[in-house]
Each structure stands twice: as C-alpha cells, then as structure tokens.
Amino acid sequence: MPKRILIIGGGYVGLYTALKLQRGLRPGEAEVTVVNPENYMVYRPLLPEVASGTLEPRHAVVPLRAVLRKARFLSGALTALDTSTSTATVRPIAGPELTLDYDELVLALGATSKLLPVPGLVENGVGFNSLAEAAHLRDHVLRQLEIASATTDPKLRRRALTFVFVGGGYTGVEAIAELQDMAIDVLEGYPDVDRSEMRWILVEAMDRILGTVSADLAELATTELTARGIDIRTGTLLESAEDGVLQLSDGAKLASDTLVWVAGTRPQPILGELGLPVDDRGRLVVDDTMRVNGHPNIWSAGDCAAVPDPEQGGTCPPTAQHAVRQAQQLGDNLLLTLRGHAVKPFRYNSRGEFVTLGKNKAVGEVLGHKVDGSLAWALRRGYYATQIPTWNRTARVLCDWLVGMPFGHDVVNFGSREEPRGAFKEAAPKK
C-alpha cells in the first residue's frame, strides 16, 4: 500500500517539497496531498515589483494545481491534529471538515504579520505579505496622488502625500523604495503635484535598517534612499495610529492616510494549538534533519520552524533562499525515509543578498563582493527569474520586465476592484 504524505501549506516549503517528491517518487511508492487555502504560491521576492506595477500580479504566483500534477491538491486550512492516530483535520473552502490520514506529515504553514498593541494599527494599517496587499498599495498610492491633484486644501494635500512605512527590514525597505520610485516616475501625469510635496518616511526601531544584512550593505541602501528624499528614522517606534494621526516615539505627529506595517512576522498561531514543541517565538522545534522533536513522522521548515544553522550558529534566517534549500533537503529526507535509509542534516551557505530599491536601483552582496546600482538590479532580476518555479513563469516574468524597461509606470488606479459590485449597486433604482 502506498505511503500517505500530507503537506500542509503551499508556500516555498510546501511547493518545493512536493516538487522534489514528484520528481523522485517511484510509481506506487507514495501518495502526496497538498493542503493550502489558496491554489497558488506567492513568489514573495517579487511582491515589491507587483506593488510598483512593473510586474503583472498573476506572474508573481505559481499555480499549484498546474505544477503539482502528480499530487492531490485540496483548498483548505488545518484546524486540528491528532498525533496519536496520525490524522489531520482540515476545513475545506466549502462543506464539512475533512479528516486526512498520514504516514508522513510536513507542516509548512509559513508566517503572518506580527502586530503589536499599537492603538489604531489594526483599523488603519495594511501589511505587505500578500499579493492583495501589494496590489492594493499600488492603487492606494495612485489614489493619494489623485486626491492631492484634485484639491487646493493644503492640509488635505499634505495628508494625502505623506506615506509612512513601519519596519526597516528587507520587506519595508523594498516596499517603500519601489513605491516611491513609482510615484516619482508618474508625477509627469500630475502637473499639480510637486515632488517636494511628497513625504516618504521609514520608521525602524533598531539603530539601522536592514539589520539582517551586513552593515556595509545596509549603509549602501541608506545612502541611496536618503539621497532620494526618503526620511529614515531609526531608533523610533510607532506609538499610536488613531484618528488619522500617527504618533512616533521621537515626538513627531504625522497626519497620513498611508500606514504600511512591515515590522516583522510570526508563525501562524495554530502551531501553538497542535500539541507540538514550539520555541519562545512560536516556531516548531526541529532537529537538523527538519524532524519535529519527539515526532519522527512530522517534519517542518521555513518561517514556521526553528531550523538549526550549523554554519552560522543559532537558527536559519527566514529568507527565500533558506526556505527553498530546506524544502529540497526535506524532500530528499522523505524519500530516504520511505526507502529505509538514514536521513541527512540540512547544510547551506547563503550565496548572496539583494535589495531592490526601484527601477535600475539595487544593492547586493555576491560571494563576498558588494554591488550596487544597475549591476545589482540586473543581477537580482536574473537570479529571481531563474529561481521561480517552471519555465512558464520565468518566461512571463522576463516578458514583463523586458516590455516594461523602455517605458514608465502606468498611471492606472484599479482601486475599484476592491468593491467590484459598487457600479452594479449604483445602477439599482433608488427607493
């Protein structure tokens, strides 16, 4: 009877583990089931370019059903786990809950935004972890430019043109850089708005931005961003976000309708409800082969697991590079387990890092060498184009980039897609 491998999560770890199994399993050796709320995987390094409009949103995702043709896919979410009977309870997109049996279980649930108890944050902020958030922010920035162009009220203009991002890690830096670059590029279409009126503010609690990269690389990025007029406030916290006013710990009060919260992530809360060992950050405790401690048939990797890093010490950083390599090793270990062989520990040294800062702008470190400007931008694009799964997606991404290079950003706000029935309801007869 074929072994049953159940993968919960369709992000980097879930997808790449399933792909490894799909290529390595012998006929009849195992049945693979992948469970994920969405039927696609978001290639998150490309989200900043989705936000700036240089990449079509559909091209930054990988359709799970299309690439996992040898696996069963189920659109749903994990709600419970019974390790004594090796069963998982899943709530599908519709209908009653399902009970799925497994011989080997992979928990690849990823992470979600880490929100702090800041008054007004939940009501007025937006994150930058999903395709919907990236697309929304592009439309939102263009809408703020429309508001500023349509009014002569100085307070309203200043409020519309103040953009505040909280969190100076990879995501925050790339998001503010790409969106500011887009906003400047489209100003030709807004003759009533001057570049000097826009305020882009990056708030970071630590003493520098990009705390997980080398100090030299962070300094390169800081120099580029400040030269473009982005106000970087380190050692600063957001204290409140109520009534359209953002109160910062340095005493500043900013009237703004744009608050982007990118101050870290945390594992999905359900991990703490499964009866499995977790660390003080809520991540599953695993050994260097990515087995969950005390559970030989449960595995985990990526953002939701504390995978030991023997090369640098501590645990692996939550980067796409590490998640992909962990998934590939996890897939190999599952194949070894099925065939009665000893599994292997995870080992990986980062090949380099890139931070996009807008069109033709980036900083990076490749094999110990610092690069910036157009070269870093081109190297970053080349790397990610070759890493996104399937040649179909690679071709689509490259076409978007090549077609867009000679042209500027489109001044098109699709904000109405957030309420697609708005025009339909307006057409209804008035009572």
From TrEMBL:
The keyword Acyltransferase is assigned to this record: no
Domain FAD/NAD(P)-binding: 4-327
GO molecular function, one term: NADH dehydrogenase activity
Pfam families: Pyr_redox_2
Matching SUPFAM superfamilies: FAD/NAD(P)-binding domain
Signal peptide range: none
Record's keyword terms, sorted: FAD, Flavoprotein, NAD, Oxidoreductase
Listed transmembrane segments: none
Keyword Acyltransferase: no
Family under the similarity heading: Belongs to the NADH dehydrogenase family.
Name of the protein this chain belongs to: NADH dehydrogenase, FAD-containing subunit
The species this protein was found in: Saccharomonospora azurea NA-128
